């Protein structure tokens, strides 16, 4: 019985003291922690999913990890890159400079204002990923994340795996 209580307390403390994304939104932070946890379970599959989801190269994904990003960080970095239509290298530069300030500050530095439509899109897509849903985000096919997908898709998903135009 004591062992069970000990392990339950360890699990709870591990969850509550896990990665803090400091986005300024508790729901977004919680979803990023879920994405992080799931990404760590099978990192190779997670990385491959990111290359497909954002239409970026594996070296772009690896570049994010090489600066110390967690799976949750890489996911939000690629989402931000996609939303603001800036190369992932720009997001990495901001991350290296401002990671201690959290994703809320970094997103703002990159052009996503708190409460804006872009912020709500970021939050919604992160929630979808945390819940195991595809968000249909696509990059621009040049190794950089962008807003338009292949064949002119808008990058919006109808939740059934089909993109809306």
Please provide a brief summary of the model.
The chain has 165 residues and is mainly α. Helices cover 59% and strands 2% of the residues.
Fraction of helical residues: 55-70%
Biggest sheet: strands, sense, closure? 2 strands, antiparallel
The whole-number mean of residue pLDDT values reads 77
Shape descriptor: globular
Weakly predicted, low-confidence segments: 4-17, 135-165
The rounded Rg comes to: 16 Å
Order of helices and strands: HHHHHHHHEE
Structural class: mainly alpha
Kindly report the spatial arrangement of strands forming the biggest sheet: 1-2
Distance between the termini: 57 Å
Task: Indicate the proportion of strand residues.
Answer: under 5%
Quick one: how many beta strands?
2
Separate helix tally: 8
If you had to describe this structure to a student in words, what would you say it looks like?
The structure is a single chain. With 165 residues, the protein is mainly alpha-helical. 59% of the residues lie in helices and 2% in strands. The protein has a two-stranded antiparallel ribbon with strand order 1-2. The model is unreliable at 4-17 and 135-165 (pLDDT under 50).
């Amino acid at each position: 019985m004591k062992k069970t209580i000990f392990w339950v307390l360890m699990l709870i403390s591990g969850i509550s003291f896990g990665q803090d994304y400091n986005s300024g939104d508790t729901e977004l932070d919680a979803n990023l922690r879920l994405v992080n946890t799931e990404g760590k379970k099978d990192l190779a599959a997670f990385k491959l999913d990111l290359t497909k989801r954002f239409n970026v190269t594996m070296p772009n994904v690896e570049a994010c990890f090489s600066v110390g990003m967690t799976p949750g960080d890489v996911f939000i970095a690629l989402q931000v890159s996609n939303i603001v239509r800036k190369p992932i290298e720009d997001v990495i530069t901001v991350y290296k400079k401002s990671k201690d300030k959290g994703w809320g500050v970094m997103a703002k530095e990159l052009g996503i204002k708190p409460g804006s439509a872009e912020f709500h899109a970021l939050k919604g897509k992160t929630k979808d990923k945390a819940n195991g849903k595809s968000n249909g985000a696509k990059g621009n096919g040049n190794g950089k994340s962008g807003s338009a997908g292949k064949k002119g898709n808008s990058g919006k998903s109808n939740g059934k795996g089909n993109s809306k135009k």
